[in-house]
Amino acid sequence: MAGVRRGAKGAALIRFGFALDARAHDDARDAVRAMARHRAHAAKWMEPMGAGIERPVTTAQLIRLADAAFVFWVDSTCRRCKGRKEGLVKDEGGGRRALSGTACPSCHGSGKRAFQMRTRFWQARGLEVLAMINDEIARTERAVGRRLRNGS
Fold first, then answer.
1. Which end of the chain is more exposed for a tag (fewer CB within 10 A), N or C?
2. What pLDDT, in 10s, does the model give residues 18-59?
3. How is the chain classified by DSSP, letter by letter?
4. Burial level of 32, CB count in 10 A (0-12/13-18/19+)?
5. So what's the pLDDT on residue 88?
6. What average pLDDT does the segment 122-149 reach?
7. Distances 130 to 8, 32, 40, 47, 95 between C-alpha atoms, Å
């Protein structure tokens, strides 16, 4: 997880996520890893092991967490309805499929799948990383907007 400058993180995420610049994939992934690492160290994340025992989060665990959050951020589409928000039913005529008119039972009509990790601790940390991604993008968009308004 190489050091990524603060402004460069949001720029890499925007380039990859919104401009679909495939060359920015590694930069965006590294930015998410750096954000997760920084938050883990600043907040002193400790993984609960049971019976009141905790251990520090390892670099390998942070990489897995950041990568899981990054993959979800890139594609959170419901796998069952493929983002259509409705269940599919098989049409008896010719085997074609049609929308059912009822909410997809997996995503409850949102078109998005839920972010899931193996424990409550990792679930909470993953959601925190996803929030950091969105915050970084918003911060970068505001900075760009200010520069455009000021003509810099």
1. C
2. 777 778 889 999 999 999 999 999 999 999 988 889 999 999
3. -----HHHHHHHHHHHHTS--GGGHHHHHHHHHHHHHHHHHHHT-EEEEETTEEEEPPHHHHHHHHHHHHHHHH--B-TTTTT-SEEEEE-TTTT-EEEEEEE-TTTTTSSBPPP--SSHHHHHHHHHHHHHHHHHHHHHHHHHHHHHHHT-
4. buried
5. 66
6. 90
7. 17, 9, 14, 19, 40
Q: Categorize the per-residue pLDDT at 105 as very low, low, confident or very high, splitting at 50, 70 and 90.
A: confident
Residues 103-107 have a mean pLDDT of 84
Could you tell me the two tokens for 79? 């796998």
Q: CA 49, CA 73: separation in Å to the nearest integer?
A: 28
Place of tokens 């380039």: 15
Could you tell me the end-to-end alpha-carbon distance of the chain, in angstroms, rounded to an integer? 32
Angle between helices 6-17 and 59-74 (to 10 degrees): 40
Name residue 39's amino acid. Answer: R
Going by C-alpha positions, the residue among 136, 125, 112 that lies closest to residue 13 is 136
